[in-house]
Amino acid sequence: MSDFTLADLARIIAERARAGDTANSYTAQLIADGIERCAKKLGEEGVEAAIAAVAGDKAALTEEAADVLYHLLVTLQASGVAIADVMAALERRTSQSGLTEKASRPVKGS
Fold first, then answer.
1. Which DSSP state fits 105?
2. Distance (Å, rounded) from C-alpha 56 to C-alpha 52?
3. Are residues 31 and 9 in contact, defined by beta-carbon separation less than 8 angstroms?
4. DSSP calls for 4-47
5. Which tens digits make up the pLDDT trace of 53-85?
6. pTM for the full model?
7. Domains of the chain, with CATH numbers?
8. How far apart are CA 16 and CA 31, in angstroms?
9. How far apart are CA 43 and CA 37, in angstroms?
10. Whole-angstrom Cα distance, residue 50 to residue 3?
11. Residue 108 confidence (pLDDT)
């Protein structure tokens, strides 16, 4: 089993974003195109992952999940949000039951 982590992927994405080599890096191209393109790709991959899950296609779901994670990290990078901050939010949430944590969130739209 690989020791590759989301932190590793986030580091690679940050390096490619800083390099800005849009001729050779898809990551650099996405970020150069702006947050709208990054977010659109994240949404597309999320839908494809959901379709694969509903279809029961584990191989496709595995590949689409990898795409979702990649595009999520690209979107975070383009937005200036660190993966460490996301992981800290997840850690806080796991200190209580999911139902309790969800109930403690402010109601959207109020």
1. S
2. 6
3. no
4. --HHHHHHHHHHHHHHT-TTT-HHHHHHHH-HHHHHHHHHHHHH
5. 999 999 999 999 999 999 999 999 999 999 999
6. 0.84
7. 6-82 (1.10.287.1080)
8. 10
9. 10
10. 26
11. 78
- CB count within 10 Å of CB 69 equals 16
Residue that has been written with the tokens 């990898």 in this structure: 66
In 3D space, the residue among 44, 14, 41, 19 whose CA is nearest the CA of residue 30 turns out to be 41
d(CA 64, CA 50): 9
Rg of the chain on CA atoms, in Å: 16
Tokens read off for 14: 């940050």
Nearest to 47 by CA among 68, 31, 26: 68
Rounded Cα–Cα distance for residues 78 and 101 (Å):
28
Q: Identify the CA nearest to 28 among candidates 4, 87, 8, 37.
A: 37
**DSSP per residue, 39-86:** HHHHHHHHHHHHHHHHHT-HHHHHHHHHHHHHHHHHHHHHHT--HHHH
Q: How many residues does the chain have?
A: 110
Which single residue is written with the structure tokens 């970020």? Answer: 31
